Structure formats: C-alpha cells, structure tokens
Amino acid sequence: MDKKEYSFEESLEKLESIVSSLEKGDVPLDESIKLFEEGTAMIANCNKLLENAEQKVKMLQIDENGDPNEVPFDEGE
After folding, report:
1. Using a CB cutoff of 8 Å and minimum separation of 24, what contacts does 32-40 make?
2. How confident is the chain (77 residues) per 10-residue block, as mean pLDDT?
C-alpha cells in the first residue's frame, strides 16, 4: 500500500471497494491477502481520524453565572 494520507471519506470508500472485491470471491489468494492488509490499514486510519475528531469536539455548558463555557466532549453525556 502506498503511504498516501487518506481522508476519512476516502478511507471508507476504499474499504468498501476492498470488501466488495473480497465478497465476490474471484480474487486470487495472494491478492486477497494484500486487499485484507490494505483494508486493515484503512480501518486503522478511520479509527485514528475518528479519535482525532472526537478530541476536537466541544460541548457548550452553562456555568453557574449563566455564561456558556467550552468543555471537552464527554461520551458519557
């Protein structure tokens, strides 16, 4: 696989293409292994991008004075 940095959308599109190729079952074994490895890399990239996006998400919370404050996104809320 090349070292290109893929966006989330590009990674997801490439992953969908890989899954489609593998589901057809007409890809030789060595090619299937390469596609599987590439798909795994696309999944890792999507996870990394999602984690980075989650870190950037902010929630507005009103403090005791009625003023809005930015606080880090908390999954539990």
Report:
1. 37/1, 38/1, 38/14, 39/15
2. 82 97 95 97 96 72 75 61
